[in-house]
Amino acid sequence: MKSGAKGTGSVGAKGKGGGPKVTKKFIINASQPASDKIFDVAAFEKFLHDKIKVDNRVGNLGDTVQISQQQGAGGEGKIEVVAHTQFSGRYLKYLTKKFLKKQQLRDWLRVVSTSQGVYELRFFNVVNDEADDDDE
User: Fold this and answer.
1) Which residues, listed in sequence order, are joined to residue 112 by a DSSP beta bridge?
2) Alpha carbon of residue 87 to chain centroid
3) In the β-sheet with 65-69, what is the strand arrangement from edge to edge?
4) Pairing of strands 118-123, 24-29
5) How far apart are the first and last CA of the chain?
6) What DSSP character marks residue 105?
7) Is 31 helix (H, G, I), strand (E, B) or coil?
8) What pairs with residue 122 in β-bridges?
């Protein structure tokens, strides 16, 4: 009896509509590589649509998660993800890295969190030392 009551209580807490409404907004800024024409923002948006899991199921976005490209001034190459459920920024970072690996860009780009909820794709800082003469 005790375990049955306890089980239904936990299901009610974790079930749909049991918790408070959470809205989180994430921005992935890929404007730097997109302006250099090495990063396809539309393909990345489609990748996110296809890969993001909601309730452990792929392709289950519905109204809970919205993915869109930001339009207007300064919005070129930025993707906005609005989640109306528990959603981790680390999961977005993981999916971004997975996309970069798939496109073979992982060697040149890295994902950096500039502020809370904002991730930016940056080039690795490559230092060219002209003092190094490998020809000799």
Assistant:
1) 120
2) 10
3) 65-69, 78-83, 24-29, 118-123, 109-115
4) parallel
5) 82
6) -
7) helix
8) 110
Report residue 120 CA to chain centroid gap.
10
Q: What is the dihedral of CA 29, 79, 25, 125, to 10 degrees?
A: -20
User: Are β-strands 78-83 and 24-29 bridged in parallel, bridged antiparallel, or unpaired?
Assistant: antiparallel
pLDDT in tens, 65-104: 999 998 766 668 899 999 999 999 999 999 999 999 999 9
Residue 22 has a pLDDT of 87
Segment 27-46, tens digit of pLDDT: 999 999 999 999 999 999 99
Residue 97, exposed/middle/buried by CB under 10 A (0-12, 13-18, 19+)?
middle
Strand, helix or coil at 84? coil
DSSP class of 101: H
Which residues, listed in sequence order, are joined to residue 54 by a DSSP beta bridge?
57
Identify the pLDDT of residue 70. 85
Among all chains, which residue has been given the structure tokens 């409404």?
Answer: 21
Distance between CA atoms of 88 and 50, rounded to whole angstroms? 17
Residues 6+ positions from 46 with CB-CB distance below 8 Å: none
Q: CA-to-CA distance for 129 and 116, rounded, in angstroms?
A: 35
